[in-house]
Design brief:
Layout (H helix, E strand, L loop, with lengths): L24 H15 L5 E5 L14 E4 L5 H11 L4 E7 H5 L3 H10 L4 E6 L34 H8 L4 E6 L3 H16 L5 E6 L3 H4 L3 H14 L3 E2 L1
Parallel strand pairs: 1-2, 1-3, 3-4, 4-6, 5-6
Antiparallel strand pairs: 5-7
Length: about 230
């Protein structure tokens, strides 16, 4: 792939990917970069990344970027939006930062209908720290901390956010479908750009390293995730 085909908002210098092979974050970031270029909002956007795999995106884009403490990306981006309401603020985080340590911020930001965009990558485990159980780990799924399978249910974030705020733009996509993911990101950012309030997008992502599955089984596991976490706008 030639460098000319990459989003213009990506930094110009060549650097190796910090993500594991097959990780869905790269596909999500590619889609986000395409949307930033399409909407011509490079100089208007402020990008906040959480601790976790999402922090590896801190220097991908040639846009103003801030890395926050774990689980605190949403309130930081809310604060920036209050200080600079003309900016478009994006909180980029994983299921741990959004649904575990940072869930109180997600809930209250949705309640307030804060005019920010949250993009949350759901790979059903704590990927950065070795594959422990996360709030999105599927029932009976085996992880480093659930060797006999997870007990109980999994948190469905978009459904929770929609129940809190019916006016918000809420959707769930999947990283392996680039065009569909790009369309949802565009809708989420336009919701903010048009001053309509809170927008929340969860994106299902493969995590081959921590799922410990061969490449031929990754697609099957993603199909299982889609059965539990249905795709589309809510």
């Amino acid at each position: 792939m030639s460098t000319a085909s990459f989003p213009q908002c990506w930094k110009s210098e060549t650097k190796p990917s910090k993500f594991c092979p097959g990780c869905g974050h790269l596909m999500v970031l590619r889609a986000l970069g395409n949307v930033i270029d399409e909407l011509q909002i490079q100089n208007q956007t402020i990008f906040g990344v959480d601790i976790g795999c999402s922090l590896l995106a801190w220097d991908f884009f040639d846009i103003d970027t801030i890395q926050t403490h774990h689980g605190r990306t949403i309130p930081v981006m809310v604060g920036i939006k209050i200080a600079q309401p003309q900016k478009l603020t994006i909180a980029y985080l994983g299921d741990g930062g959004g649904y575990a340590i940072g869930v109180q911020h997600l809930v209250n930001s949705a309640l307030r209908n804060d005019p920010i965009t949250v993009i949350l990558v759901n790979n059903a485990n704590y990927a950065m720290t070795g594959g422990q159980q996360a709030p999105t780990t599927l029932p009976k799924q085996m992880t480093e901390t659930t060797p006999y399978g997870k007990k109980g249910q999994s948190l469905k974030g978009p459904e929770m956010v929609k129940a809190i705020n019916h006016e918000a733009f809420v959707a769930r996509g999947i990283a392996i479908k680039l065009k569909e993911t790009q369309d949802l990101i565009k809708k989420a950012l336009l919701h903010q750009k048009e001053n309509k309030g809170f927008s929340f997008l969860e994106i299902l992502s493969p995590c081959p390293t921590n799922w410990k599955l061969p490449p031929t089984e990754i697609g099957k596991f993603l199909e299982t995730m889609q059965q539990y976490f249905p795709l589309g706008e809510l």
